[in-house]
Amino acid sequence: MPSILLTVFILQLVIHVVNTLGASTINNVLWNLYINFASPKSAADQRELKSQFMRVRKEMNSTSSQDEFARWAKLRRQHDKLLEQLEKSKASSDAGKSAFETTASTLRWVCTNGLRMYIQYSYMKQPMFWVPRGWVPYYAEWLLSFPRAPLGSVSVNVWVLACTAVITLAHETLVAVAALVGKSGFTQKKGVPIRVGGEKTQAAGGAKSKKVS
Amino acid sequence: MSTAVINADDDQLEPTLQSILDQKTLRWIFVGGKGGVGKTTTSCSLAIQLAKVRRSVLLISTDPAHNLSDAFSQKFGKEARLINGFTNLSAMEIDPNGSIQELMGQADEGEGPVAGMGGMVQDLAFAIPGIDEAMSFAEVLKQVKSMSYETIIFDTAPTGHTLRFLQFPSVLEKALAKVSQLSTQFGPMLNGILGANGTLPNGANLNEMMEKLEGLRETISEVNTQFKDENLTTFICVCIPEFLSLYETERMIQELASYGIDTHCIVVNQLLFPKPGSDCEQCNARRKMQKKYLEQIEELYDEFNVVKMPLLVEEVRGKERLEKFSEMLITPYVPPAGGL
């Protein structure tokens, strides 16, 4: 059993990463991994169907319906059939995706926020660590042990808040440093024609560093 | 036989409607196609040929622009009437559009399929899209069933209309299933409000009305099953060898296939066969164009009986001319030798 202090910190880090990246991005990545590894056959089938459909469609559009009616009509029958198949497979994969997303979201919530709540609840009365006596005045001690940890200790809830604050600060610092580095890198290359990418980093960095200050 | 065939190909089905005559189980035959391609002429001719080999044949026109009267130079109405000069061939004309008012009128007088429905519910029932046509259709079919004709030929309205018409049984079935379901769900509640005998404010009885709707639904679903049985029902497509007509025919065949209605005959009408040495510029040019599309038809519909009918120099009207024309449905027309 790893230390509860470390566990809470890592948990808060994971929650922060998830919130920064966005739930839908993570869901999409997971879904792509899932269909490519769990059922690579159906994904390949769908790609194949799609390319076949595009090919038939292109061929149909390049065939004159007036000059070669029979060929055109046959292509059209094929086209309609493929379109129907494609729609059906798309609908079924969409249904699968939404089911997958629901499951993934639930699991994610249980593993992050759910776990955090569980920890906060079950370690509510336990001290995380003791603050040396006399370091902080009484009311601060009371606050640190809020809500139910023994007086003079730091409670799990306060520890969670502290972790969150540190992670947020670290994140913002990192972003600011990255922006600063990007900016200085840009000023060094003044003689070089402006690149769109460089400019973009600068703009983004500027905006972010402003937010930090 | 092979000399009589215009394009003698071994792998092609015979270019006649003989298969229809031979298929004794056929009860419903639909004839359809774009407007002006000769649906009425074809259906009349087919009816004449069928009358020779069947006990009794009924020809029904569902086209709002009724042409049966013109074709046979005899007035037909809503009741089946024997065609002059025949003993087992009758005809009738129904208007699928105009009968809604009639149905309403009938209902007010206490007859017809919707009689006994209260005014409000009647309005509600008639708000179901397509119900008017489907109802008149069902009514006609009920009549026809009781009349014991061996074969019934429908001369349908131009393409779009036909397809809608054939779709109605499914549409109505769905709508009525919904209504019935609602009535079973809310019926007890309504009855609670209305009293034990379930009388509606305007004197109609809820249960009775639902029974009537249910009966109608059953009739229609039975008709639907019959239409989807290839032993009982077939659809004959009539077209002319021109792009739009062909396009519509292809569309119609695909749509019929999606409804599960059998179709294996195509009548290509109005073919031009200029005499050898003819210096009619238009005729020769048209023959060339028609030839192009004929080849396409044969390539595309190799599993169909493709019947080729020539364009005559006279209008095909009256019993004698129709009889002569109908011969060509069974014995293929031989174009003048040496022509284009």
UniProtKB/TrEMBL annotation, chain A:
Topology, Lumenal side: 1-4
Membrane topology: Multi-pass membrane protein
GO cellular component: endoplasmic reticulum membrane; GET complex
Signal peptide (residue range): 1-20
Ranges facing Cytoplasmic side: 171-213
Pfam family, one: CHD5
Family as reported in the entry's similarity comment: Belongs to the WRB/GET1 family.
Protein name from the UniProt record: Uncharacterized protein
Taxonomic placement: Eukaryota, Fungi, Dikarya, Ascomycota, Pezizomycotina
Gene transcribed to yield this protein: GET1
Automatic annotation (TrEMBL), chain B:
Sequence similarity: Belongs to the arsA ATPase family.
Endpoints of the signal sequence: none
Residues annotated as binding Zn(2+): 280, 283
Keywords linked to the UniProt accession: ATP-binding, Cytoplasm, Endoplasmic reticulum, Hydrolase, Metal-binding, Nucleotide-binding, Transport, Zinc
Subcellular location: Cytoplasm; Endoplasmic reticulum
Protein name: ArsA/GET3 Anion-transporting ATPase-like domain-containing protein
InterPro entries membership: ArsA/GET3_ATPase-like, ATPase_ArsA/GET3, ATPase_ArsA/GET3_euk, P-loop_NTPase
Entry GO CC: GET complex
Chain positions recorded as ATP binding sites: 34-41, 242, 269
NCBIfam families, per database record: GET3_arsA_TRC40
GO molecular function: ATP binding; ATP hydrolysis activity; identical protein binding; metal ion binding
SUPFAM superfamilies, A to Z: P-loop containing nucleoside triphosphate hydrolases
GO biological process: tail-anchored membrane protein insertion into ER membrane
Task of the protein: ATPase required for the post-translational delivery of tail-anchored (TA) proteins to the endoplasmic reticulum. Recognizes and selectively binds the transmembrane domain of TA proteins in the cytosol. This complex then targets to the endoplasmic reticulum by membrane-bound receptors, where the tail-anchored protein is released for insertion. This process is regulated by ATP binding and hydrolysis. ATP binding drives the homodimer towards the closed dimer state, facilitating recognition of newly synthesized TA membrane proteins. ATP hydrolysis is required for insertion.
Domain ArsA/GET3 Anion-transporting ATPase-like residue range list: 27-330
Main location: cytoplasm
Keyword Cytoplasm: yes
Record carries keyword Endoplasmic reticulum: yes
Catalytic site positions: 63
